[in-house]
Write a structure and sequence with these properties.
This protein is mostly helical and about 280 residues long. Helix content is about 80%, strand content about 5%. It contains ten helices and two strands; from the N terminus they run ααααααββαααα. It has helices at about 1-30, 35-60, 65-85, 85-105, 110-135, 140-165, 180-205, 210-240, 255-260, 260-275; strands spanning about 170, 175-180. Helix 6 crosses helix 8 (about 210-240). It is globular and about 60 Å long. The model has no long low-confidence stretch (mean pLDDT about 90).
């Protein structure tokens, strides 16, 4: 028992250390790297996450075109940083046309191969690139920092409360450890993070980018998007027979594991923020 407890404590220490270092890099680049710096970081993260996703689909006997998919994932944030949303749409268009041509030329390529190629790039690259678009807004630094902080708060408190007090399972066949109690705790602290950002901006930054109600609404949207993103990735792994998407991040699995919530959250926050008046 002592050995098992020691091992569990050591694993937790590794997980916390990696998360802390990784978070510091994300925040540092967001604060001081500018839009292009964040785009470069997202390009690297996206490429590694997409690689893991394509590897999982190969376990299911699909043959995606990783060259097309990963090239598009890298191009999306960089193009968006320079030319904005139109360029992002342009990269997706090129990906779609290239994938269809690949499908036409090679008879061995199946519809599922082409679909997975496009899906992998859009799911990872297109979604995460919205974090770059968010950073490009006038109030982008605050919005991205708050997005990151709220996702981390959601993950942390959902895990802490869920693992200690969770009794009612949310999706036992997909993610047995996820509970409604954990979801409720994650939601509360996610909203608190966005309300805290509003208060800090009003007090120290000359005004918040959005009204109080919009900050609360984004907090609720982030919580919902985070749990959906987490469950989607869990199901993708279960279908392919993977416990983790990879092993590149000790204590966290792979890059897709680490960003399963942020992938969908980035997309949701950008659109809700723009709808609320952020420019």
């Amino acid at each position: 028992m002592a050995v098992a407890g020691s091992s569990k404590f050591r694993d937790l220490g590794v997980r916390v250390t990696v998360a802390t270092l990784y978070g510091a890099v994300m925040l540092g680049v967001t604060l001081w790297g500018g839009v292009m710096g964040l785009a470069a970081l997202i390009a690297v993260i996206g490429a590694l996450a997409a690689y893991e996703l394509y590897e999982m689909t190969r376990r299911e006997h699909r043959l995606p075109n990783e060259v097309f998919g990963i090239a598009a994932v890298v191009a999306m944030p960089l193009a968006a940083a320079v030319w904005g949303p139109v360029a992002l749409s342009g990269v997706v268009t090129v990906l779609l046309v290239a994938s269809l041509m690949w499908h036409l030329v090679f008879r061995s390529v199946t519809t599922s191969d082409t679909a997975v190629t496009v899906f992998g790039a859009v799911y990872v690259g297109f979604s995460l690139t919205h974090l770059v678009l968010l950073r490009g807004l006038e109030s982008g630094t605050l919005l991205v920092v708050t997005t990151l902080a709220s996702v981390w708060a959601n993950d942390s408190f959902a895990y802490l409360i869920g693992s200690t007090l969770g009794r009612h399972r949310m999706a036992p066949t997909i993610s047995p450890k996820k509970s409604w109690e954990g979801f409720a705790a994650g939601t509360v602290f996610t909203v608190v993070a966005w309300l805290a950002a509003y208060w800090l901006a009003e007090r120290y930054l000359g005004g918040a980018p959005l009204g109080l109600v919009w900050h609360a609404a984004i907090g609720l949207a982030v919580s919902a998007a985070a749990v959906v993103g987490d469950l989607v990735e869990s199901r993708l792994k279960r279908e392919a027979g993977f416990k983790d998407s990879g092993r590149m991040l000790p204590g966290h699995g792979g890059f897709l594991d680490r960003h399963d919530s942020l992938i969908l959250v980035s997309l949701v926050v950008y659109h809700v923020a723009v709808l609320g008046g952020a420019r």
